[in-house]
Amino acid sequence: MTSAAATTDPGAPAAARIIMHVDMDAFFASVELKRRPSLRGQPVIVGGRGDPARRGVVSTATYEARVFGIHSGMALRTAARLCPDAVFLPVDFPAYHEASAQVFECLAAVSERLQPVGLDEAYMDISHRSDDPLGIGRRLKDDIHTATDLVASVGIGPNRLLAKIASDLEKPNGLTRLHPADVPERVWPLPVRTLHGVGPRTAERLAGLGVETVGDLARMGRDGLSTEFSPRHAQSLSDSAHGIDERPVQTERVRKSIGRERTFQQDCRSSGRLDHEARLMLDEVRGRLTARQLGARTVTVKLRYRDFTTHTRSQSLASATDDHEALAALVRQCLFAHRLHRAVRLLGVQLSGLTPL
Ligand SMILES: [Mg+2]
Fold first, then answer.
1. What is the 3-state secondary structure (H, E, C) of the chain?
2. Where on this chain does Mg(2+) bind (predicted)?
């Protein structure tokens, strides 16, 4: 009895964790190059319908295109201006899903404690493995390459924050381990945006305090930050700057959300049209919900305006449902909580809090 109590002693220090972050390099573009080898070495941009004259954003660009300043989320038209010689290809999700499934088979063989982030990225908790983490990473990269002919970057750290930073440090084809002691030398020179949780708005507020790099943030400390941020936010920023992150790897058995987004060919200024489109999107998303015999508790409606600012509104029910009218009512509440008189370029409807019914 005493030994059982000892194993759950809340005062015992938590064992050090080893977290791996795997991120495929230029994933969509690499899948495309695999079937179009003649395009290798050229700037290739995958996005929308592959036509820069039409609406759509860059999903992925090859490294040859990135040197022109092209990045994910950029309007295709802007990308065409920056790199007129780029080859534009349409997004082909079935092909990426297929490659992704092969990648995840390789990942699942390494650890069951696996948290997917989109099609081409995942965190794994490998604390339970006794072999050398860098060796695990090297073999995993080989396995992925053998199975898919695609290249992954792998980062290893004591938590998700540092594992993700590590996977990015030597991209493409990187394999990097960060220990807490490496933070001042390797992480502090990086821009604050590198840190999980520091979006454009937080970065702007930090710039107002003279904070540009992670090191600046670490030196500012919690107290210096609390002039601008809530005590909780100041604490979490300061923790991140010191490489501290307690978030667990969240193994998910059921998908967390399903949704649909649509970029309009021309900005939409009609609330009636948005209402109609949102309804059509809900119909489609709800079809996928019922096909999986799931209910949803939360509805989120996302709008992206012409200036690319993005706003989301969510509403939740007390329990999950697949009832069409109940979900449609929430969609409308969320939609009309937005400012609809502005020019809208993208509309999204998402269902989350999914539970088997
Ligand atoms: Mg990637």
1. CHHHHHHCCCCCCCCCCCEEEEEECCHHHHHHHHHCHHHCCCCEEEECCCCCCCCCEEEEECHHHHCCCCCCCCEHHHHHHHCCCCEEECCCHHHHHHHHHHHHHHHHHHCCCEEECCCCEEEEECCCCCCCHHHHHHHHHHHHHHHHCCCEEEEEECCHHHHHHHHHHCCCCCEEECCHHHHHHHHCCCEHHHCCCCCHHHHHHHHHCCCCEHHHHHHHHHHHHCCCCCHHHHHHHHHHHCCCCCCCCCCCCCCCEEEEEEEEEEEECCHHHHHHHHHHHHHHHHHHHHHCCEEEEEEEEEEEECCCCEEEEEEEEEEEECCHHHHHHHHHHHHHCCCCCCCEEEEEEEEECCEEC
2. 23, 120
Which fold, 257-356?
Answer: Dna Ligase; domain 1 (3.30.1490)
Q: How far is the CA of 155 from the centre of ligand 1 (A)?
A: 12
The residue ranking higher by pLDDT, 340 or 210, is: 210
Please check if 23 is assigned to a binding site.
yes
Mean of all residue pLDDT scores within the chain:
91
Please state whether the predicted TM-score (pTM) of the whole model is above 0.90: no
Give 7 Cα–ligand 1 centroid separation in angstroms.
Answer: 39
Ligand 1 centroid to Cα of residue 26, in Å, is 5
Q: Has domain 16-178 been given CATH number 3.30.70.270?
A: yes
High-pLDDT (> 90) share of the chain, %: 79
Instruction: Determine the CATH number of domain 182-241.
Output: 1.10.150.20
pLDDT in tens, 275-320: 999 999 999 899 888 877 789 999 999 999 988 888 999 998 888 8
> Which residues are identified as catalytic?
121
